[in-house]
Amino acid sequence: MNTNNGCLSALARLAQYGALAAGVFGLAGTAQAQTTYNIAGLADFTGPYADVMKDMTGCRKGVLDWWSEEVGKAQGVALRIKEYDTRYDVAQVASLWPGIKSELDPVAILGIGGSDAAALQQRLPNDKVPQILATAGYGFAWKSDSWVFNARATYPHEVAAFYTWLQKKSGSTAPIKVGVISSEVSPAYVDIHKGTEKFAKDNPKILEVVETVYTEAQPTDLTQQVNRLVRKGATVLQVFNNTASVVATRRALQSLGKTNIPIVMSAHNGLVSSGKALGGLEQMEGNFEVYGMAMSTDDPTPARAYFEQLRTKYKAQVSYTSACIMGMSQGLIVARAVEQAIKTKGAKGVKGEDVRAALLTTPMPSERSFGVLPDLQYGKDAPFPTEGLAVNIGTVEKGKYKLLEQNVPMPVLNKW
What we know:
Elements: H1 3-25, E1 35-43, H2 50-72, E2 77-85, H3 90-104, E3 108-111, H4 114-120, H5 124-127, E4 131-133, E5 148-150, H6 155-170, E6 176-183, H7 187-202, E7 207-215, H8 223-231, E8 236-239, H9 243-256, E9 263-265, H10 271-278, E10 288-291, H11 302-312, H12 322-345, H13 352-361, E11 390-397, E12 400-409
Parallel strand pairs: 1-2, 1-3, 3-4, 4-5, 6-7, 6-8, 8-9, 9-10
Antiparallel strand pairs: 10-11, 11-12
Helix pairs in contact: 1-11, 2-12, 3-4, 6-7, 8-9, 9-10, 12-13
């Protein structure tokens, strides 16, 4: 593959998307006196996700800088973000929020994940400020009229798309037999395996969960547990916990001589990070990751071309990682929502409730996010889109991280 030619082609498509944005927003107007809207950024520079926070916050800031220059400038509008270190701690988020709100009067919040939702979801309806998270959603947050929005549907939604795809790819009508590695140390982990088990129960012709194994937070040896799953006939192992769990599972398969059994994982513990922890990407040969956003491969995609623009033109000091793509996704969601709110209300006087109304009423086609996200349409029934979404599937082939399948349809799931 000629990556340079591919990127040039992607850049050409990027220019077309920019033209579309200009046409929709009416950028031919005369620039006016600038109105600045503040965005509150919740970050983790000293807690469990500090190692990836530079890319996440840098990429979402890059998006807002891009939007302010290339979309908002003609209307006299700029978006500015200020980051606050919450250490991914619920109490810290709750403690900081009143001061953040008073200082910034933000029209939106860009959060990291569950800690931010847990701390603020009861307050935001009164404060009238929507929060956008870059992570997948959770079944326990599947409530109506939320002010917290996820860029992606739940992890069970995403992995259900993978199993449906894998069965079709196999050419067999037999259900996929999966062994789930989970843990009770986090409500999020419990939610993921419960959602997977519910999908299997509702779709026995597609998926059978042979067993769910519970581990500690940082497992070191899972040989006995993995051997039990293999004896029960598991042909895929699902590990959505963390990188340590992937590493222990892969080492167990290696010691058992069963490396032909693939592991499926998500963005936060995916192929690159797990391969690095194992000593090299080649250690993840034949395994999979799945999620509903672009993947940080070298493939020449519009998302990669857009990232290169942020890095070169807008001086974002970041790397093209899954954390960066998460930052880009939430930055684009909030920027496009503000864009729509301005189109509806005018450049001045936009409030948080106007941004939320735009999220709920205005679809965001994939080209409006430069392929960073699939087509999005929020509704009042859930804090994430529950249908019409798609996922991407990545793998390691001959030691190379690659995009295997794009826009795999995501099935509709029942609540669990």
